[in-house]
Description:
This protein is an alpha+beta fold and 195 residues long. The chain has helices at 12-16, 66-76, 91-99, 111-120, 126-140, 156-160, 164-167, 174-185, 187-194; strands spanning 2-5, 28-30, 35-41, 44-53, 56-62, 142-143, 151-152.
Amino acid sequence: MRRLRVPGPIHLGLTLGPIRRGGADPATSFGHGGFWRATRTPDGPGTERIEVDGGEVTIEAWGPGADWLLQAAPALVGLDDDPTAFRAAHPVIHDLHRRMAGMRLGRTGAVMEALVPSILEQKVTGKEAWLAYAAILRRYGEPAPGPAKLRLPPAPDVLAGIPSYELHPLGVERRRAETLRRACRAVGRMEEAAS
């Protein structure tokens, strides 16, 4: 478990909501005391629960990747950025900044977990993409460690080996399936570029 003091307000929904891919996303959940996320870390699979209480963020983690998740928590909830340095030059931006004071820009460090859903979201509605993503996780993911009933996103080598005809019944046509497979085969270069 790790506790972090937060300078200023923080809103978990605004900050971590973009990680969630629709209400059926089996790798994330809002509820039961905070935001839950199953992920793959450099140290192995892990599940984390993040909750805000006043000016403090509490992070609990399970699995082989637990220590990595605890160390990466400040970046995930946007504590590596200094919100006091932001200056809104336009009145609309100033108003949004005022109304969404608890929104922080965090980072997961999980390149493929952002890229795979982004590929699936091309040329289809958000709902169609999110349903396809959830179906892929249910079929090819594995149970996440910890008390939450979450699914880990499939490892890139697993996704790279799935023929396009197996993804079609899950809502992914050949073009997006091939793009997904190519991206998964290049995961090392992408993660290197991102870091």
